[in-house]
């Protein structure tokens, strides 16, 4: 038995030390114990015979024969960018490998060149704009406009424009995205240059390049536009995607393998062997390794070693490993040299140690945390003797962050893809308090944390790999499959959920981390580290939403990830985090109803966030800039916070509360999960809900308190996991191999102590800003692709219909099929983009959190609006984020809630805020008010939302008046859209769009009518602006028509001109419809009010008829106005003529009403404007127009008979007007038969010198000039100065009567 035990131990040691055959002469035990001397001898012997793989083998100096490295200033072994060669302002890091352009165009080359052999370097993209990466000779000129690829003997690849450059450009490669690793390969043996993207060859870019003399070779070179940045690797780190046969320009760390100076081996090769031994040692008792074994292999498992044996053997392995992991410090680092300390060898750690940790921890769940901890417990104490542990930890964390930035999601049969392996290991390592402290104290902590929060996005080619098969509604393609597409989308969704869970876990651990005392942190408290990171992130990305973004911004995915973390924290509460095995206990103690966004009852917000927060002073406030407000509206801190009840904004009996009978839309289905019940144990939802979520292709994040399908865990096949950790990590406290942890649990504080340093309201403020800076544009892009997808489907269907039609020429069918191919490819790309956005942004829990945020925010804004000074200090991005989030919810796909529930089930206060603030003078920026108006304009398109407006007391009281007063030069377009939609269905030819001919909103039509009748001054001002605006749009439309007619003769009609013509046409139609509504509801304002109203209305009618019924080409109007793809039902001549018919019929009907005496008659006024027979022809055109074809089924067409009666009357009035004009002409001819008569008439000054149509009857004061009342009344509508002398007119009076002062 003793011999058998000795043999079993030797067998185990042989496995650990990678002994291929264990002979009787080789034994690692002595007297029943491990013989350390035998182990040491064996390791020495093995290290002496290890060789590099054939493709990496280095033999002496032959590797350097084709390379020249300028020794200054980095030394003869280091390759970096030569700042002396830079043109433009480039920001370098301390190693001159991270570059960022600070000017419009910058260029720089490296300090090394090559002239023979096969070489490569890698460029990792920090941004995805215009960059030209490649090679250039020293003779290539660098200027502000020319860089790499713009001269002879320089070659570059630009993935933004998808081109290659060498004096001229040509299409090449794939579009790149942030995080791509571009391999730049130069094969001087074949005279070729090849580029790789993430290890995928893009093809030979250039061949037959010119050979150069020694030391006059090709330099790695790069050109960057403003704000672009990248990270270069010439061999100081292992390549992310090495290319076989191509060597790094910088030589990796090597060690001598014999006395021969030419016998060298990579340090990483020896380190990999030793780390392999260490891995096998620590995994001897690993449950995770055993679980992954086949059943027959488990029977042959090796016997376990004692803790002492593991420590002894591991120490011996580490003694050989340490010299390989450490290198001597630089000559200028005197502190390390004096203390005889070394620094971590970056190459060996990246190439050997980090892969060892990843492989030991396992890239897929379940993870082997105990083995990693055992290995670190053995290694770290020995490292502390030779190197500062902080530098070692920093190097590891930087490698993991780089892995997160550069690892794309792939389509595999498990969800552990993308940055998951690196992020999972980082989260586990940071459970060690010493690791967390060392990482936090490092110089690049913020940058490294951003890397861990990065999620690499795909380009067109990547999406094709993630979603190889697509489907869309109505698809008849043979290769389309709805089931396969949903399966791929669900797999991708699960992978993203895994990564988001780990990012949340990482940030939660930072929240609970208590740093040691420091110079700037005398009393450390939990949350301070995460708070500083958030503030630095916000400060760094202040201009991210500008049209021209400044340099130095974070990657957009960092903002998105941080936003999602904050959204989850505010939805679920801070929580204890999943650390130290206390997750399950924390779940039992946590009350989700106390989280900020779902808190029941009283709510509060500290106003100091607006008044004292220096980080937010750079952002504009509703009342203007912060510096201006401090001087104009100084606000003290006597009010520390504002308070309100959750449901205080609701009206009537429909009170929406989180704990009420009527719950908000974000929590209305929480009872299914049991999270709001008295029970502390979550209840599983019905499986049907899970199936619905999976079918949508958007996975619900389990563990969310607002999840309708809450479960205790997840797995990639839809089964419920027993483990409490959603990341798949195994709690080592449940058993397994013994482990001695070196970190302290007291370094992480519970939730109760968090409020001392950071408030939830402060996180909410930062979350809103992150949405404004990062997510708003993403949701707009998602909306664009979704709309474009619908348009593309319509185009494809229309093309298919045309192809199926008979009697088509073969040439025309050929062009249709070519167009169909383009439409199909565009649609497929669009479907993939929509699926990506749907999976990443429209997860159910995110939409619920966004809805709760909107509820919280609109209540806060309404409370603050009642406090004038405080409301002015509210940042503009609060309002912008509120509206952007709401519209993202409204456009979500699949829909978050039904349209009828969106406003009425929690967001009814939003209607109050919109109608009371779009005309609020306290909002200084008109763009913010425009956002509110545009939102109303969108909402009133839908009957469900109009009902919410009709139920709002604030809308009933002030909306009509505010709309009329807001109709000015800045807001007339959205106001006219709102008025048009509220009055929709009440005009001629406009009732067929509604069921049973009902008006769209009779309630608001009545309110508008009452407001115009009760406030005559407001109505007169609105009507004047309406006339002016309609005159302008019709004029611009007619000018555009003439320009297009001129261009059409040359068969060149610019798209911009055609678009302008269409827009002006639509705006004119809208304004005419508003006038039609006014004549229907308020005809007496034109027939019994000021004469100028009816006169200007008739002028508009004649003006429109002149430009739409008379044309050299009768068909030119329709052909020029209608854009390609525009619906004929929306753009045609009937749309602009129908309102005119409605206006005339409304006034005629009012005139014919008995018992109503009218001061003016529309036919009489029209006849007076144009006494020629042409006016009759224009109205006859209206009678003869084919209205039944234009408005088929519209009941208002029957009123055409009334138009015929009006035209008959108009003929009589025109005939009478012509007779009167003829008599006046005869009188004028007789009275001017001689010169004296003419002078006598001129001396009388009876004719107005402005219009020459009326007699002078009005005098102005104080200048005492004269004109007719019609001219001065129209003039004073828009100008208060005299026609003749430009002096200000105070009053005017009739000449004949006693002056009755009239003030304008």
TrEMBL record:
Domain RING-type residue range list: 1248-1286
| A GO term, aspect molecular function | zinc ion binding
The processes (GO biological process) annotated in the record are: protein ubiquitination; proteolysis involved in protein catabolic process
Q: Which cellular components does GO assign to this protein?
A: cytoplasm
Q: Which PROSITE patterns match?
A: B302_SPRY, ZF_RING_2
| Pfam families linked to this entry | RKP_N (PF19322), SPRY (PF00622), TPR_RNF123 (PF25576), zf-C3HC4_3 (PF13920)
Look up keyword Zinc-finger and say if it applies: yes
Can you say what this protein is called? RING-type E3 ubiquitin transferase
Please give the organism.
Physcomitrium patens
Q: What is the lineage of its organism?
A: Eukaryota, Viridiplantae, Streptophyta, Embryophyta, Bryophyta
